[in-house]
Amino acid sequence: xxxxKDGGDEIKVADVPETVISPTRAEIAEPAPAPVAYxxxxxxxxxxxxxxxxxxEVPNDHSIEEVxxxxxxxxxxxxxxxxxxxxxxxxxxxxKVVFAGNVVLLGxxxxxxxxxxxxxxxxxxxxxxxxxAGAEGDRNxxxxxSSMQATQLxxxxxxxxxNKKNSFFKKSTQTGTxxxxxxxxSVVVEALR
Length: 193
Prior knowledge:
Elements: E1 2-6, E2 9-13, E3 19-21, E4 26-28, H1 64-72, E5 84-87, E6 96-99, E7 102-105, E8 114-117, E9 121-127, E10 130-133, E11 143-148, E12 152-155, E13 158-161, E14 178-183, E15 186-191
Parallel strand pairs: 5-7, 6-8, 7-9, 8-10, 9-11, 10-12
Antiparallel strand pairs: 1-2, 3-4, 11-14, 12-13, 14-15
């Protein structure tokens, strides 16, 4: 209940809701809702435990000799993978990364920057610097990128440099992922499918 004065007389205003003014519009304040009462859940009868047989039979399709023979065979060995270095940055001119394993660059390799790896090199950005995969002579190493504009690309002891004959190194219309690998004594750059 609110009381207001009108000139000297007091007026009783009963059950008039307060008005709240917001920057956008006037709203009428409503009283808070009454708490909800929940009824208790009915009691359930206890569950009787059921008797389970002490033994049961499992069908056996294999003899013990077959199982022992299969388990005695040596599992195929997985060759040790080369360690991989992940870089989340752009390499700028003058920066050089040398790693005894694979290198994955999540960024650009700018002109003047270099990556030298004993394994594969993957550039998830523009490859415009110098890369040397298989630096210790691994001829199976590859270079993978989405933009091949390298100033020099080397795999083991073979290399390609920027010149007019290497159309992959120009700002070409070649789209998609490209892979450079050795084919005999030549470095081949091809679209990866």
